[in-house]
What we know:
- An 8-stranded mixed beta sheet has the order 12-11-8-6-7-14-15-23, sandwiched between helices.
- By secondary structure, the chain is of the alpha/beta class.
- It is built from 21 helices and 30 strands.
- Helix 7 (about 190-195) packs across helix 8.
- Strand 19 (about 405-410), helix 15 (about 415-425) and strand 20 form a beta-alpha-beta unit.
- Among the domains are: about 65-120 and about 130-355, ANL, N-terminal domain (Rossmann fold, 3-Layer(aba) Sandwich), CATH 3.40.50; about 550-685, 2-Layer Sandwich (GMP Synthetase, Chain A, domain 3).
- It binds 5'-O-[(S)-ethoxy(hydroxy)phosphoryl]adenosine (WTA).
- 5'-O-[(S)-ethoxy(hydroxy)phosphoryl]adenosine (WTA) binds next to helix 11, strand 20, strand 24 and strand 25.
Amino acid sequence: xxxxxxxxxxxxxxxxxxxxxxxxxxxxxxxxxxxxxxxxxxxxxxxxxxxxxxxxxxxxxxxxxxxxxxxxxxxxxxxxxxxxxxxxxxxxxxxxxxxxxxxxxxxxxxxxxxxxxxxxxxxxxxxxxxxxxxxxxxxxxxxxxxxxxxxxxxxxxxxxxxxxxxxxxxxxxxxxxxxxxxxxxxxxxxxxxxxxxxxxxxxxxxxxxxxxxxxxxxxxxxxxxxxxxxxxxxxxxxxxxxxxxxxxxxxxxxxxxxxxxxxxxxxxxxxxxxxxxxxxxxxxxxxxxxxxxxxxxxxxxxxxxxxxxxxxxxxxxxxxxxxxxxxxxxxxxxxxxxxxxxxxxxxxxxxxxxxxxxxxxxxxxxxxxxxxxxxxxxxxxxxxxxxxxxxxxxxxxxxxxxxxxxxxxxxxxxxxxxxxxxxxxxxxxxxxxxxxxxxxxxxxxxxxxxxxxxxxxxxxxxxxxxxxxxxxxxxxxxxxxxxxxxxxxxxxxxxxxxxxxxxxxxxxxxxxxxxxxxxxxxxxxxxxxxxxxxxxxxxxxxxxxxxxxxxxxxxxxxxxxxxxxxxxxxxxxxxxxxxxxxxxxxxxxxxxxxxxxxxxxxxxxxxxxxxxxxxxxxxxxxxxxxxxxxxxxxxxxxxxxxxxxxxxxxxxxxxxxxxxxxxxxxxxxxxxxxxxxxxxxxxxxxxxxx
Length: 690
Ligand code: WTA
């Protein structure tokens, strides 16, 4: 495997977009009833949480149910943390049983809306109370057990946004099986890679899912992946659309058959706090995605507490909150803030199956009014799309139920922030811009609404118990220092936190190298940041070769590997170009195999004059389709540029900075259907790149 390298480049351009002087204090009505009602209260609790993080997190942990208390809060041997040592708990119990067996039994846990609009002009809506969810989770857990799936087994989940997807996670957690959710937009090869890496014994999927009016044939894609996944012994298929699928007689089972043939009671496994809960793959700077491992105890505590404070949930002043995080459960945001965080808080969680613009551009606003959503959490890329689609779609709806708005996944530009506050929040809702990562498991930097004044474009200040810092790039001896307030540098986390990923599945060395080597003694986030005079954090994007396309993380090497797997491609270099809507768009520079450029003569003609020239535009389309087929449409390059050779330094390193510049600021030759020649420019820049 290629080593994880972290070429660090700090993007200074973004500094000009900073907007430090605009400050929005929390709306007084909100603050009056918030968990943390003032800046003083935040600062006081933050100071105490940093002075004694172990006591702080232990107090939070005591709000959850433990079968056996911990003997020690933290054991820290950098980079390995153990939180709540010897503690025993079950996250499914804390999400479901605790509420179903208590006062919340009849409260709606999941409120689901389907994408298709029925003949009556309305979409299908399903609600599950905590008591009903309890039943469903126990049956699903027993169904998994009936297949022989046991504690410690890895189970892949490749489903659409249905209530059963949440139930699948909770069922795995209940029996101690480690789930590995694979986003429903990934292609067969990407599924196979992930399933094989962690040797999953089963895949849970569905016949098809709905997205923007079309059906995505999930089972068929799984069937394709299964050709190369020998570890998988069972496939469980949820019937969602009823579209016929091929069922293998011994390997494949219908979800409804399994759950109807098992007992409705399934006791929770008593999991050790450090038992793995899930694996989630995310892109790094090599071609191979990393299977980050999250464990049970610390993850439970931090997702519980961040949800409570950042989204002001579990607040007696707001018993009828309806909480909606629009993320797909296939990403970490869906794990922590659709399923585990809000359910631990006994919230009513809205789940929507489909796209924001189906059947019309106002679907989200319709959903908010229909279900009286009060807390809404989405991505900047979605907000930029709403702006582009036009205010008329928003203005048709009341949106008066909203009291809190959130964003996640990428930096939000101040203009989009202001629009969100004005058009969606009616200047009445605090906005929480939450910075965190798959690796951090839970929110790390975000304003506590009701307490911390917001600045558009800043994730503001750290969560309790979290100690971030911005440091200089370490020198050759590994020396670095914190930058003064007002400057930029690398974002690091100085102390362990409960929901941190514990390792990369099967590759602890890569874990150490990727996150704990660049900045000795600290967790290195891969992000650049600046801290302003008030200590507010301004995220400036990745400083490594990870792209953020529409809030989705993608490694440049992943896309490059997919491209070079095509027979006509010799070499490929992928860079990100700033994009108004997606944040970044993928631009691939490709050199072709000589054979691909040879004009093909028609088979039955010996006349050289009849040879057809190579259609480079058609080849571009072919390569875009190829990447979609290899990884999924999220990785589809926006632009492909053919070149004779990639600009390289004398030592053979691709000059990515040059390519990024070219991708951003135009081309060398206007005609993009011919090969570009970078040789001259490359020479000019060689000394500069080193
Ligand atoms: C970026 C998503 C600026 C960042 C939860 C990070 C953000 C990467 C923000 C993690 C934010 C996430 N402001 N940038 N509020 N939130 N990012 O693992 O570059 O999919 O490193 O986790 O997204 O992406 P991931």
